[in-house]
Amino acid sequence: MSSLTITNEDIEYASALLNITNGFDEPRIEAIKCMRSRDIVACPGSGKTTILLAKLIILSRQLPLENNKGICILTHTNVAIDEIKERLGDKAGELMAYPNFVGTLHSFISKYVATPAAIKYYSTRISKILEDDEYKIRLSKKYNSLFPPFSGSKLDAFLYSKIDGEIKASRNSDQINKAKQQKLLSLELDYSDYIIKEVSYDRRTNMLRNPTLDSYKEYIRLIEELLQDGVASFNDIQGLALKYATQFGDQLKRIFSERFSFVFVDEMQDTSQLQQKILNELFDKEKVVFQCFGDPQQTIYESEDSNCAWQPTEPLFILNSNRMSRKIAAVADFVAVSPYGMIGRNPSQNVERAPIIITYKNDNVSHVLEAYAQILENYFLDKSSKSIFKAVGMVKTRNDEKLSIKSYFPGFTKTPTQTKISKEFPNLQSFLMKIDQSIIQKEGVQAYYNRFILIFLKILRLNDIKTKEGKYYSKTNFLKFLREEDDELFKFTFRFFAKAILRIENGKSIIKHFKYVIFIVLSRLFNFQINLKSDEFLQVMTISTPIDEKVLVKENTYVFHDLNIELDSVHGVKGQTHTATLYLETVYHSKTVESIIEYLTGGSKEKLELEAYEEKHIKVAYVAMTRPTELLCITMDNEVYLNNFEKLSNLGWVHYTEVLQT
Fold first, then answer.
1. What is the mean pLDDT of the chain?
2. Beta partners for residue 208, in sequence order
3. Measured in whole angstroms, how far is the alpha carbon of residue 436 from the centre of its chain?
4. Which bin fits 561, alpha (ψ -120 to 50), beta or left (φ > 0)?
5. Distances from the Cα of 80 to the Cαs of 102, 108, 152, in angstroms?
6. H or E stretch at 278
7. What is the set of domains in the chain, with CATH numbers?
8. CA atoms of 116 and 126, how far apart (whole Å)
9. How far apart (Å, rounded) are the C-alpha atoms in residues 565 and 560?
10. Residue 631: is it exposed, middle or buried by C-beta count within 10 angstroms (0-12/13-18/19+)?
């Protein structure tokens, strides 16, 4: 355990660098000063990343640490890493160097555990870690090559036994083979218990649990053959790592205890059970200061049987939010599986708006978005250009007539085309729009880097600038040319990219700065002077420009007068901050607001026995209701509202008609 101590002077130094005007309060100071293995549980909007940054700034002044040990910082996304680098500024350089480590949990596990595991167990290195869709294509090809028709495969017989009876009865070989393939690709080995399970949106069903069965062995053979080819899924990487960490846990704990004095894990609630098991095998919490930052209440997964793997150890609580008003925090705190007394910020300009319920009858929700927009106008929240308005729900679209986001906004699409990485955006402004979180979660921060490179490729094409061979530049030869011709400019450009990502993610404009970088690159690298004022591609559109509505109003956006309300799933807005948020009631097994009415009305949690899907309703509602800074709205069936009118009113909820009548 570390012998270092953090003083009040250290904290004053860190708060000055981070521009914390009034300094840190007592709960945050306690968390920063803590120098032993304890967890920090921080409510939404409490600035937990800032607390971690303050601790890193202070510790970076002590580098190199005693015995030349380092600091390990693990996050879940590359965006989080870029934020840490950006906000640490010059201090980040020291933390990036050995023996320190700053990176995603996945990259750490892959580099230090899964890679040696692949070498030991399969005498190979993993050359490709594939996303689910691509991995399934590889798995299907491997299956067809290892177990062709009439090969007597037991796995083939098992798959046939699980397909629909009507398809079997049709005796249509194409349909049968397609059904078997679909069943195969729905399977996944759960490395926590080594049961092969069928994975669907809302559940994992045990399919093959006996490792002595030939069908089980044949499925494992598929995975192992791919691993020997150097191909793995993210699930396989974690499975390899867990096997290796379990077998060599004592040695690994000794190695990492000798390298690191501190290990910090951000957003710990997003850690899977497999990752949690691996971490437990890698770090000795008696020899390393191991601290996790997060909020277990914000654990939401796609699968209903996934619960938070993180059980905080002797936690320090940060209960006061810098994001939500007191009235929002008060009602949101009830909607938690284990409320811990969240406190909202003091109101700005003595204005604090009560949370609002928009009711509907007979599942007719056609009026809801307009009512929400009118409320925003009544409160003049639309007057700021920086305002962000969202309407979010748990279920995107369904094939039946039950409530979904599409019920409120028929044009809603699961994957908006505007958020796909496109090569044909008409101008610079449209290239620099915020990328949908679902894509960021899948592709990481690389999605932004790819788009930025496309900007340069398009400008070069528009101005007919080609390679020495007379061909238009590709991503590969553009980056190669930039690095070889001007390495300083190459580094400058990518440092700018990192800053640009953070500004875009925080809702700030980057167009002016990007124009400047474009001018520098074209002039220094290609000796081409682009006209920043007249070049059509670089022009920022105004409200009077006819193309505005097509480019600036993204899909999944409801427009009312000059006000835009973006619709999304709750999963898609996790981690975001909005000016106002509307939580839409949808149906997932049952109605997502009606099913948690006892929580919304402050009922005793001890008496409530929850179904798995109801606990999911609570967690999703909690995440949705803790996004806004100024106004929270929810939708509710009118009959449910009337039956609970008194309780809801006593807790501070108001009916939307009260606001619209004023």
1. 86
2. 196
3. 10
4. left
5. 10, 15, 50
6. helix 273-282
7. 8-111+244-318 (3.40.50.300), 128-229 (no CATH), 323-416+555-660 (3.40.50.300), 417-538 (no CATH)
8. 10
9. 8
10. buried
- Cα of first residue to Cα of last residue in the chain, in angstroms, is 61
The CA distances from residue 495 to 243, 350, 449, 489, 654, in Å, are: 38, 41, 11, 10, 48
Q: Which of 583, 495, 637, 542 is nearest to 90 (CA)?
A: 495
What pLDDT was estimated at residue 217?
A: 95
**Structure-token pair, residue 656:** 């939307």
Helix (H, G, I), strand (E, B) or coil at 448: helix
d(C-alpha 429, C-alpha 537), whole Å: 9
The pLDDT tens digits for 68-99 are 999 999 998 777 777 777 777 777 777 888 89
Whole-angstrom distance, CA of residue 40 vs CA of residue 34: 10
Q: Virtual CA dihedral for 46, 301, 394, 355, nearest 10 degrees?
A: -20
Question: Cβ(148)–Cβ(235) under 8 Å?
Answer: no
pLDDT in tens, 213-264: 999 999 999 999 999 999 999 999 999 999 999 999 999 999 999 999 999 9
What are the angstrom distances between the C-alpha of 643 and each of 594, 639, 653?
11, 6, 14
